[in-house]
From TrEMBL:
Record-annotated DUF402 domain positions: 61-182
Organism, scientific name: Amycolatopsis regifaucium
Sections of the chain in a coiled coil: none
Listed PANTHER family: PTHR39159, UPF0374 PROTEIN YGAC
InterPro entries the UniProt entry points to: DUF402 (IPR007295), FomD-like_sf (IPR035930), Ntdp-like (IPR050212)
Pfam families assigned: DUF402
Molecular-function GO terms, alphabetical: hydrolase activity
Keywords, alphabetical: Hydrolase
Name of this chain's protein: DUF402 domain-containing protein
Amino acid sequence: MRDPHWTPGDTVVERFLRPDGSIGQHHPLRVVADDGTVLLGWLPADTPIIGSRLADGRLFRDAPLEERFRVPRVRVADFWRDTSTLRRIADDEWSSVWWFFDADGHFLNWYVNLEVPLGRTPSGPDRIDGILDVAVEPGGRWKWKDEDEAEEAVLAGRITAGQLERLRAEGERIGALADAGRFPFDGTWTDFRPEPDWPAPGLPDGLL
């Protein structure tokens, strides 16, 4: 069976899975383009998502580092806050590139979410969040994000040491592209505007 291929204007749901196969978060995306292997999707600010928090009620960032990957998590109804994102998700890459836009539609920066790719389902792409990330500013200056969390995630069994090594290599590849000003950090899509008649993407019923 061929992998799903989506049409501009479709809604897909990007799912972030845990190593045990359970689903952590659901992010709905409006399809901008898809060639069967690379998806470009739009997630506007204030779109309902399924997020997660610690089972004791704390937000992830409110817990000490040594607890963040050891306390069980639960899914919660939430919203994508403050900024809108255009996401490039390639099936065979251990990252997705997010273009961030402010409320007036002005490009802010790139954020590269390092991820373990798990392929496509009929409803959207599946990934494992790799914890470690790369932030890229206009002009190409870049830096690692959440290195301490990534190391702790390995100790807690959230990702493997081998996966972290592969994610670091992907981050270095991304950083080299940023240093050189090459795609996707060459200005492509920094002037993106969604179709004016597109409603915000929605989630299917029954996820909680």
